[in-house]
Amino acid sequence: MDIVKKDRLFGFVTNEEFWVNLGAGTLKIILILLLCVVAKKVLRVAVHNIFKVRQKAPIRISERREATLLRLLDNVIKYVLYFIALIMILDTLGAKVQAILAGAGIVGLAVGFGAQSLVKDIITGFFIIFEDQFAVGDYVRIGNFEGYVEAIGLRVTKIKSWTGEIHILPNGSITQVTNYSLNNSVAVVDVSIAYEENIEKVEEAIRELLPQLPAKYEDMVAPPELLGVQNLASSEVVLRIVCETKPMRHVSVARAIRKEVKMHLDEKGIEIPYPRLVLHNRNEQEKQSVQQVKENA
Question: What CATH architecture is 2-114?
Answer without folding.
Answer: Orthogonal Bundle (1.10)
